[in-house]
Amino acid sequence: MEKYYIVDSSILPESFGKVIQARQLLESGKFHQVSEAVKQVGISRGTYYKYKDLVFLPDEGLISRKAVISLMLKDRPGILSEVLKVIADSDASVLTINQNIPIHDVASIVFSLDVSHLKGTIDNLISDMGKVDGTSRISLVSIE
């Protein structure tokens, strides 16, 4: 189970801040290539790709925050509905659902969610989704 924290940047490696700077340069349009942005801030492309979906500023995306969560569901009636109820009860909104056909009675599901008004934390949401009988391998793919 993954956990998320807000910590003072002084205890983090300098490269985390540089990943955020590179992402901001790309989002602003100042640079169009990752290689240009990482060169400007002084990190490798590998460092950028390793951490780009794992570090962010707490005030980024306050208007609209999005998360992508993947999980496996047993192929039984009602399980997806139960997971959707957990999402709705947390005040997250489903933007997209991608479901693959079940193989060996298990289907992979990927949700993209708007978590701007989330009650609690992403950790709480993931934990609550995991309490639904028939869910497994729940993971946060990315958050912005």
CATH class of the largest domain: Alpha Beta
Low-confidence stretches: none
Number of helices: 5
Strand tally is 4
Cα Rg: 17 Å
Quote the distance from N terminus to C terminus.
19 Å
Quick take:
It contains five helices and four strands; from the N terminus they run H-H-H-E-H-E-E-H-E. With 144 residues, the chain is of the alpha+beta class.
In words, what does this structure look like?
- It is a single chain.
- This protein has 144 residues and is of the alpha+beta class.
- The protein folds into two domains: 43 residues, no CATH class; 78 residues, 2-Layer Sandwich (Alpha-Beta Plaits).
- The chain has five helices and four strands; from the N terminus they run H-H-H-E-H-E-E-H-E.
- Strands 2-3-1-4 form a four-stranded antiparallel sheet, with helices on one face.
- Helix 1 packs across helix 2.
- It is elongated.
- The two termini are 19 Å apart.
- The mean pLDDT is 89.
Topology:
Layout: H1 14-28, H2 34-41, H3 45-51, E1 66-74, H4 79-89, E2 93-99, E3 106-114, H5 122-130, E4 135-143
Antiparallel strand pairs: 1-3, 1-4, 2-3
Helix pairs in contact: 1-2
From the structure above, extract its key features.
alpha+beta, single chain, 5 helices, 35% helix, 2 domains, four-stranded antiparallel β-sheet, elongated, Alpha-Beta Plaits, 144 residues
